[in-house]
C-alpha cells in the first residue's frame, strides 16, 4: 500500500532524534527534542487551493525543515510518516 498526497500536501518521514548532545551527554526519550528535519517521500500535484494556484517547490528525496508541531501523523507498514501542507515546510536543506 502507498500514500499519494493530494493537492498541496507532502508526505515526509522525520529523521531520528539526537540521543546524545555534542558534549556527549545521553538524553532520555523525554528530554530529546522532536526532530524538525525530514525527508520528502511523496509530493501532491499542486493545483488550486483556496482559490489560488499552488506550484509545488519540493520534490521526492529533498531534506526539509518543518514546523515543529504541524501535520498529521500516519502509520503505514510499521513506519511513521507525517502529512503536511507545503506551506508548513520552512526550508529545503542543501
Q: Helix share of residues?
A: under 10%
Q: Numbering strands along the chain, what is their spatial order in the largest sheet?
A: 6-7-1-2-5-8
Strand-residue proportion: 35-45%
Please tally the β strands and state the result: 8
Instruction: Please state the average pLDDT score.
Output: 84
Unreliable stretches (pLDDT < 50, length at least 5) are: none
N→C terminal distance: 30 Å
Output the helix-strand order. Answer: EEEEEEEE
Tally of helical segments: 0
- What kind of sheet is the major sheet? 6 strands, antiparallel
Radius of gyration: 15 Å
Output the structural class.
mainly beta
State the assembly state of the protein chains.
Answer: single chain
Shape: globular
Summarize the structure.
This protein has 94 residues and is mainly β. It contains no helices and 8 strands.
Describe the fold and architecture:
- The protein is mainly β and 94 residues long.
- The protein is 0% helix and 43% strand.
- The protein has no helices and eight strands.
- It has strands spanning 9-14, 37-43, 47-49, 52-54, 63-66, 72-76, 79-85, 89-93.
- The chain has a six-stranded antiparallel sheet with strand order 6-7-1-2-5-8, with no helix packed on it. The chain has a two-stranded antiparallel sheet with strand order 3-4.
- It is globular and about 50 Å long.
- The mean pLDDT is 84.
Question: What does the secondary structure layout of this molecule look like, with pairings?
Answer:
Blueprint: E1 9-14, E2 37-43, E3 47-49, E4 52-54, E5 63-66, E6 72-76, E7 79-85, E8 89-93
Antiparallel strand pairs: 1-2, 1-7, 2-5, 3-4, 5-8, 6-7
Amino acid at each position: 500500500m502507498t500514500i499519494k498526497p493530494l493537492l498541496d500536501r507532502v508526505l515526509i518521514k522525520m529523521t531520528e532524534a539526537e540521543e546524545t548532545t555534542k558534549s556527549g551527554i545521553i538524553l532520555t526519550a523525554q528530554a530529546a527534542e522532536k526532530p524538525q528535519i525530514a525527508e520528502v517521500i511523496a509530493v501532491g500535484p499542486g493545483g488550486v487551493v483556496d482559490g489560488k494556484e499552488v506550484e509545488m517547490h519540493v520534490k521526492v528525496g529533498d531534506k526539509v525543515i518543518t514546523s515543529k508541531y504541524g501535520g498529521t501523523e500516519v502509520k503505514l507498514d510499521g513506519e511513521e510518516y507525517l502529512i503536511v501542507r507545503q506551506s508548513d515546510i520552512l526550508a529545503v536543506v542543501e
